[in-house]
Hints:
Residues 16-217 form the 7TM-DISM receptor extracellular domain. This is 7TM diverse intracellular signaling. The relative contact order is 0.07. The chain folds into two domains: 5-233, Rhopdopsin 7-helix transmembrane proteins (Up-down Bundle); 285-386, Winged helix-like DNA-binding domain superfamily/Winged helix DNA-binding domain (Arc Repressor Mutant, subunit A, Orthogonal Bundle), CATH 1.10.10. The protein has 388 residues and is an alpha+beta fold. The chain has helices at 5-30, 35-55, 63-91, 97-116, 145-168, 178-197, 207-224, 227-240, 252-261, 305-308, 311-322, 330-337, 343-361, and strands at residues 121-131, 136-143, 285-288, 294-297, 300-302, 328-329, 367-370, 373-376, 381-383.
Amino acid sequence: xxxxxxxxxxxxVTTVLAYGTLHNLFLYYKNxxxxxxxxxxxxxxxxxxxxxxxxxxxxxVNAEEALVWERLENTVLPIFGMFxxxxxxxxxxxxxxxxxxxxILLSVLLSIVILMDPNSYNTKLTSQKKFPLLGIVVxxxxxxxxxxxxxxSGILMSIWISFKVILQFVHNLLSxxxxxxxxxxxxxxxFLDILTAMDFVPLPYTSHFxxxxxxxxxxxxxxxxxxxxxxxxxxxxxxxxxxEFAAAALSEKQIEKIEKENEKxxxxxGADSEVDSxxxxxxxxxxxxxxDLEFERGGVRIPQTEISSKRKMLxxxxxxxxxxxxxxxxxxxxxxxxxxxxxxxxxxSLHALCFRLRKIxxxxxxxxxxxxxxxxxxxxxxxxxxxx
Length: 388
């Protein structure tokens, strides 16, 4: 029997996933720090293997031929769930390490049980799902109650992880709708596939289509959220075109230059440091960004070594100047400064960094935190690019 359109669609999705796997492995090879790209690649290839095994159970000559492929198919599914949680946690830590290790252990044990237990399947009890409109017959074998329970638990756990991701990034839903739409569509299709497996609905398995959409959605999010490249591009634009100034920042070579000049830095009054503000003159902060980065407080320049010698401090100042008008959300700032770090530790580090910056500029009220956004108060802080 020839290949049907349904089987061809499965092979097409598998081919796209294989290409995505190679692409992400190449990106990971270029930057080994982005471990989530490696997990994302294994996530794609595991689902591709599952889909490939599934196609071998369609329109087979006898049930025994489908038995081996179905057992391999169900063996790969727990591995898929394992790479799912590894990818999610390596990109943005949501679950504790203990939970991740426990989930991995249970997934491996389930795969071993499905693959090795002789009672997992009964070759004499076979069922066929016929879909005349598609011209396919899917052969399935009966599983033991224990394997069936563990298998269903793993699927529900994967769905729960997906919704956990949606809740974690709920504040970014309006900025990027691709990920939540892809997740909801995939979870709905998985639920329909479960109903199909239980013979509750006469529909074919369609989750591979929504999974492909989900992969495109995740890939778009990963592309848009390359924080290091994004910041570097903004900084290069700032340094190249002052008229198009959107923020203040320095390149790596300029940072080295400033560090060499810091030893010769002296205090001197700034003629352009007056700011139209109702606060005391001694509390006014003026930031020079065209040229070398300079801070002035009450007409007196703050030594550059206070900021430029500390990389995290300098990076924080760059981001705050880039987002001078609207500020930056706490979660986004944590991703920029401490990607991959536990949220609690990263938040403590951010508080300590803000405390040191407030101490350096001499006016704690100039650096404000409101509605989960960090920003310079424009009534207390003025920059030279505002005067252009």
